[in-house]
Amino acid sequence: MTLTDLANPTKFLALTARILPWLAGVTAVLLAIGLYQSAMAPDDYQQGATVKIMFIHVPNAWLSMFVWGVMSVAALGTLVWRHPLADVAAKAAAPIGAAFTFLALVTGSLWGRPMWGTYWEWDARLTSVLILFLMYLGLMALWRAVEDPSRAARAAAVLTLVGAINIPIIKFSVDWWNTLHQPASVLRVGGSTLDKAFLWPLLVMAIAFSLLFITLHLAAMRNEILRRRVRSLQMMQANRIAFSSEVGTGSREENASKPIGAA
Amino acid sequence: MSLGPYASFIVTSYALVAAVVLLLIVWIIADYRRQQARLKEIEASGITRRSGRSAADIR
After folding, report:
1. Cα B22 from Cα A71, distance rounded (Å)
2. CB atoms within 10 A of CB A30
3. Where does residue B10 rank: exposed (0-12), middle (13-18), buried (19+ CB within 10 A)?
4. Domain boundaries, chain A
5. C-beta atoms of A13 and B58 within 8 A
6. A192 and A199 Cβ atoms separated by less than 8 Å
7. Which residue from A49, A103, A237 is facing B17, i.e. has the nearest CB?
8. Is the pLDDT of residue A7 over 50?
9. pTM, 2 dp
10. Are A234 and B42 within 8 A, CB to CB?
């Protein structure tokens, strides 16, 4: 099976039906390993046990940006290549990305209260992630508001690409501005500053959450393909009803124009 | 394993993540079942795809 075969929704459904159970299984195993490692990780010399929040906060924060990246590639697929599954991929990813962004915000807030002394601060990192969350909600609302899927797809794709400007702003906000949020400590020039006792559980959790996203995204894409099939069949049904009532009206009018007794 | 004086923040964080992830999984499974049921309902009324294949058959 080549990549172009995946442009065919029927082939995509067949392929994902085979790989989804495996993906779900590997995700569950990795999540279990990651959670065990997180529980067993030592306390930080400054943060104490609250460092454990990092193992769920950071993967969610990474995914909040990664999912928008996936949606941006899909937006290009919609606008440039008109790939039949591009809009399906973007639309299916949005609620999952919104959920990860929500979790990044809330777990960050719960981590911030004991460490910073506040749940929220209007600094560049926190505010730009909040904007990302609002953009996810806006996109989801746009898809629901426009009835015609192809028009909604183009509008959403443009909005997604415009919103992609926020991703580097989020990433570099801690370098460009003086923020309460700490600078990057894993993905940085010169290597990670995290001790291996924290780095390994974090990486395992990051891979597990990434696999979780892929699994949920493929499943949500299948649902979106089925939803579009429902819509096209409903339109066929409506056309058939309209056609049969037109034929019925036409034959009645024909009969009415004939002299009595001729029908 | 002792979670120290901020145990409630740690436990709330993990519980919230578990709840939202479970909610996502349940929502996606429920959505799949809903779409399958709607497809079968429409096909039972005699409307089929131009290819003649069942829309609900996705294997």
Report:
1. 23
2. 19
3. buried
4. 50-181+194-245
5. yes
6. yes
7. A103
8. yes
9. 0.88
10. yes
